[in-house]
From TrEMBL:
Belongs to the LysR transcriptional regulatory family. This is LysR family transcriptional regulator. Pfam families: HTH_1, LysR_substrate. InterPro entries: LysR-type_TF_proteobact-type (IPR058163), LysR_HTH_N (IPR000847), LysR_subst-bd (IPR005119), WH-like_DNA-bd_sf (IPR036388), WH_DNA-bd_sf (IPR036390). Keywords: DNA-binding, Transcription, Transcription regulation. PROSITE patterns: HTH_LYSR.
Amino acid sequence: MPKLPPLAAIRTFEAAGRLQNFSRAAEELGMTQAAVSYQVRQLEDRLGRALFVREKGRVRLSETGLRLLPAVSNAFALMSDAFAALGSDEADVLTISAMTTFGGTWLGARIGGFQLAYPDLAVRMSMNNDLVDFDATNVDVAIRVGRGPWPRLRADFLYRSHVTPICAPAFRDANRIERPEDLLRVERLAPNDPWWAGWLAAAGVDAVPAPQRSGVELDSQLQEASAVQAGFGIAMMTPLLWRAELDAGRLVQPFETLYEPGTAHYLVHRENRVGVRKIERFREWLRAELEKDRHLLAEPLWTPLP
C-alpha cells in the first residue's frame, strides 16, 4: 500500500480547498494562517505539484488541486460517517456481561424493566464466567464475583456471596432431611467443593468425612437447579437468586444457615467511563432493584467486605 502524506497536511488541504481561503481554513481548524500555508506547502513539496494558484490576496485550486479535492473530501466524509455511526451505536446500546447464574436468574428476570424505563437504550447481555477484557471487547459493564478493588476499574459493591443447601421438596422428604448431619448421607452435587465443608462447619457439623467419590460437578447453579429439581441431589446455591422457585415451592431451603465464601458481587466498568449516561442509568437501576430485595437477606450480607 503506498504511503500516504501526513494526515494533518491532507486535512489542511481539504479545508483550504473547500473554502478557497487560507484564513477561513485556519479559523475552522484552529490554526494560524501561516500554519495552514506551511502544511499546504509541505504537501505540495511531497507531491511535486502545486495544489493552489496563488494570486494577489487570494488563492484558488490548481488543476491538480481540483482533481484531488473531491476524493479527499469524500474520504473525510466517509470517516466522519463511520465515527458518527460508531458513536451512535455506543451511545444507544448497553452491553452487559454477567455471570451465567446471575444473568440467567435474577438479572434476566428483571432486565426488561430497565428496557421499559429507558426505551432509547438497547441492551445486549452475554452470560459467561470469564474475566472481561474491557480493552478488547465492546462490553460496557460486567457483574463479577471477587474481592476487589481492581486497577483502572470502578467496582460498585452489590452484595456478599452466600450459599446454602437447596433441593427439591420431594428429595428432602424422601431422604428425611431434618438435621444438617443428614446431608452427609445423601447425594450432594460437587461434594468436594469447599463450600460444603464451610457450610457444614457453620451449621455445627464437626467431623465431616471426606466424600468417597467426586460426584456430579456442573458449571453453574443454572445447571445444578435443573438437576436438583429433577431429584438428582442437593446443591449449594444462592437463595437470593432462586427466590421465585423457593416461593413457588419448586425448590426448598431445608436450613436457615448461610455460608459466606469471603467474596462479593460487584458491578464493574472502566474507570475512565464514569459519568457515561447509559452506564450511570444502569448502575442506578441495578442498585434500586437490589434494594427491593434487601429484606430477603440479613443486613451483614449487604455490607461491603472489609
